[in-house]
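Subject: mismatched residue count in predicted assembly?

I count 575 residues in my input, but I want to confirm that the predicted structure covers every chain. Input:
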Amino acid sequence: MIRFDQVSKRYPEGREALSRVNFDIPAGDMVFLTGKSGAGKSTLLKLIIVMERASQGQVFVQGTNLNRLARRNIPAIRRDIGVVFQNHQLLFDRTVFENVALPLTIAGYQPREVGRRVRAALAKVGLGDKEKQLPIALSGGEQQRVGIARAVVNKPSLLLADEPTGNLDPGLSAEIMNLFEQFNQVGVTVLIASHDLALINRMNRRQLLLHEGRLLEDRPPATLVATDLRGGL
Amino acid sequence: MAMAGKRPPRRPNLQAATRVVNKADGAGGASTSKRSLGDQWRAYLANHRRVARESLQGLFKVWLASAMTWLVIGIAMALPTMLYLILSNASTLSGDWDGKPRISIYLQESVSEADGRGFAQQLLADELVVAVDYVSPSAALAEFTQRSGFGDVLRSLDRNPLPAVITIEPGVSQTGQLKPLVARLEAEAMIASVSFDLAWMERLFAILDLAERFVTALGGFLALGVLLVIGNTIRLAIENRRAEIEVVKLVGGTDSFVRRPFLYLGFWYGLGGALMAWVLVGASLVFLSAPIEMLLASYQGDFLVIGLSGGESLLLLLLGSGLGILGAALAVGRHLRQIEPS
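Triage response: the counts match. Full output below for your records.
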């Protein structure tokens, strides 16, 4: 589903955000991307949705080499990837319904179909009764769930999340993670960038640990359990 | 925890989940191809209708600012339209002239009416002359009194100041061919002067042609102005909706999808401006037509100021909306590429 092959990313100002990162995430997997802030997590996600291009190496998403992707083909790639942003990226002058409907409108769905899918997605994240409200009237956790509904409404095969629990209390964070697990259970590949180690460790999933742009560790779930039993990280 | 009660029931979750699985099975292929082309086309049209409606509603939401923009565009378009109308009215006036030249011969005062008429008949023998018309001094005076309204002044004179006139309608219309005839006439002893009004008409048409070019050039400049006004307004709209553009691009909006609302915005600005111009021109005509008609009536009887025809009005609206779309397209093409999500 996602393959990084010796990927480096150097920003114009000279900072190297990623250096020679290698990994492969098969379809249907659920993976956490961890590391301190500034370790390169956001850059890695940006490369997957072609907000940035790799300076060196190859990025493949669903078999497509993103380095060779023409600018006009970027929208098609993004439509099949649901993204949950740390700052939500909601439109505050549009209702919850309109926010969630945006990807469907872009993809050219009939209004009837849009209504059906948006309500299903909002029900899924527990906001069925808020569709007519403006995002500003919602709490941080609710806004985040609007963002999740928008990310999954087009039924993408890949779901990315950048610090989805960043500003939430532990209880809300667990709820959000639970939602991601449910999507993963039905076949969606999920990649979540987070530095909330306590939460991640409880999830017992594969972890990619980034440190100063390098992939320090690629830990499968079982190893993680063993590490936990030893009581260290 | 406030959220606990809001968790959705389990069953709908599973249904939603099943749908996602179905989608995931087909992943990698083109998921959109499952919808028929007809459906996509209808959705595309629905999006156009929605965007057109929303952009117009958006303009009315800030109606004062929109009205100002419409007025600016309206004034810029009304000016050349007014000049165009003045020209077309002037052409109508000059169009009353049948396009054939006339040569007027003013006879010496000493020439009697009988000699004058005889001379006129002689002129008919010339192959270049098709028709002649002799107007005696008294007939000329009567006509002048009726046409000019200077009857009282003329009556106060002790004698008729007007000479006898012979009007010649030549068989050819080129100035060059008529010059020998004019020269021959000028040599005649009976004739005081020869007035050849073709040159005057040629000058009038040259002036009208010049004015037409002037109006075209002015129209071009003002069209450029309208383009810039709309372009700049759209640029501001793009700047105001930067966040929205970024989000739309992030969730896979194509360039044409992002561009669409702004093109419609330009269309509404242009169309509204053209409507405003139409109203301004109409109001000016109402304001001006009565005095103009009165003025012209004193010269030559009935004259009606002609306004914009249905076709010309439609053309004005098309031109306005076309300029709007073009101005928006220029602004969008320049600024939209610079806005990328970061």
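Chain A touches chain B through 51 residues (CB under 8 Å). Marking this ticket as 'not a bug'.
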